Amino acid sequence: MKRRRFGFLAALTLLLSSHTAMAKNSLLYIATQNPEKMGITVAEFDPATGALSAPKLVIETRDPAHFTLSADHKHLYMCNTGTPGGVSAFAVEDAKTGALRLLNYKESKGRGPSYVSVDKSGKYVLDANYGGGYVEVYSLAADGSLDQQTAFVQHEGSSVHPQRQTKPYAHWFRTDPTNRFGLVADLGMDKIMVYRFDHGKLTPNDPPFAQVNGGSGPRHLAFHPNGKWLYAVQEISNEVIAFKWDSGKGVLTQFQQVKTLPDDFTAANTAAEIAIRNDGKFLYVSNRGHDSIAVYSISSNGELTLRQRVPSRGKVPRYFTFDPSNKWLIVSNQEGGNVVVFAVDAKSGELKPVGEQVPIAKPMAVVFLR
Predict the structure, then answer these.
(1) How distant is the alpha carbon of residue 291 from its chain centre?
(2) φ, ψ at 177 (rounded to 5°)
(3) Looking at the DSSP assignment, which residues form a beta bridge with residue 79?
(4) Contacts of 182 (CB under 8 A, 6+ apart)
(5) What are the b/e assignments for 345-359, b being 16+ CB within 10 Å?
(6) How far, CA to CA in Å, does 222 sit from each of 114, 138, 161?
(7) pLDDT averaged over the chain?
(8) What is the mean pLDDT of residues 241-245?
(9) Is the pLDDT of residue 148 over 60?
């Protein structure tokens, strides 16, 4: 009798521990521009092994590109790029399955947006419209849907590249850590615009922008966790520019510029995504063409030192994200038709490929629900 009881308890313990392990798995949203079924998919991620399941479509939506979650992870906001494009708001119906429900959609003026974010108060959605060369802000209703447009700013200007910089191309728009300023990376003007942000309203700061070298093409920005440094990836010149950030005055002061490519690489490339690990020690950038992820260490004074360039395991790595533990980096290879996983070495910041490539047609943005 004792043996049977022991065997039953052991089996029960194993079952419960297995259930607990499954419950700890994360859910990853992956946008897909598969022409047969465009929309948002969800995949299960095991933080113990780095295993990623096959993505399953949870909702169809036209031309999905970049998206973000609200701070409480109850709502998802997406850029629907294309012509015409717009911004969509979704409710997370079920945190266990990742099921989504469309709340509403705001059509954009001209070609669709490229980047969307939520301000620190959780009351406003910020949208950078690449094709239109403008930025806009929407207030949020009580149910999380997009409400009124509280700001719209049309950029004016150009830069030196004869094809890529004939007009403004607003590519990234977020508030700073204090939520008092809104910063915009405008690829077409070679400027990082700075606006005072007050309850959804935008007014030009003094000075109103930081100028980078002609032909650089600022694409995306990343604030260091200390709030004192800002790093800007340059899509055209394939560089990362480091700035000191004065959060009192809203002023950027450049102090370093590093390459994302090896000196002997001469083929076409456009740098894309940029992110900093949550411990503030390492910075990551994707290269589309060289098809790699560049890894930099961040010193105590904010300066960058190259640690590694690792193949992205596919073509055109457009987006990537850390899992909630920051032990794994998930990369979407837009033209490679896959999403891949890398283990992140906590001491060196370097990446090591893990597991098999997960097939998905034209993957775009990736973000963890949990």
Answers:
(1) 17
(2) -60, -25
(3) 87
(4) 126, 135, 137, 173, 174, 175, 176, 194, 195, 196, 197, 202
(5) eeeebebebeeebbe
(6) 16, 22, 24
(7) 94
(8) 98
(9) yes
- What CA–CA distance (Å, rounded) separates 303 from 229? 10
Please tell me the distance from the alpha carbon of residue 167 to that of residue 127, in angstroms, as a whole number: 18
For 288-316, b/e burial (b = at least 16 CB within 10 A) is bbbbbbbbbbbeeebebeebbbbebbbeb
Name the DSSP letter for residue 83: S
DSSP letters of 156-180? ----S-TTT-SS--EEEEEE-TTSS
Cα end-to-end span (Å), the chain: 43
State how far the Cα of 361 lies from the Cα of 344, in Å rounded to an integer.
Answer: 25
Phi-psi label, residue 319: left if phi above 0, alpha if psi -120 to 50, beta otherwise:
beta
- C-alpha distance from residue 299 to each of 61, 304, 326 (Å): 42, 7, 19
Site of tokens 């073509």:
315
Secondary structure letter of residue 54 according to DSSP: P
Q: Return d(Cα 194, Cα 178) in angstroms, integer.
A: 13
What would the DSSP string read from start to end of 110-132?
SSPPSEEEE-TTSSEEEEEETTT
Is 296:242 a contact under the CB 8 Å cutoff? no
**Which residues in 3-95 belong to E strands, given as ranges?**
26-32, 39-46, 51-52, 56-60, 64-69, 75-80, 86-94
Amino acid at the residue 102: L
Q: Which of 370, 274, 265, 349 is nearest to 305 (CA)?
A: 349
| 30-60 pLDDT, tens digit each | 999 999 999 999 999 999 999 999 999 999 9
CA-to-CA distance for 279 and 127, rounded, in angstroms? 28
Average the pLDDT over 220-225 and give the result. Answer: 98
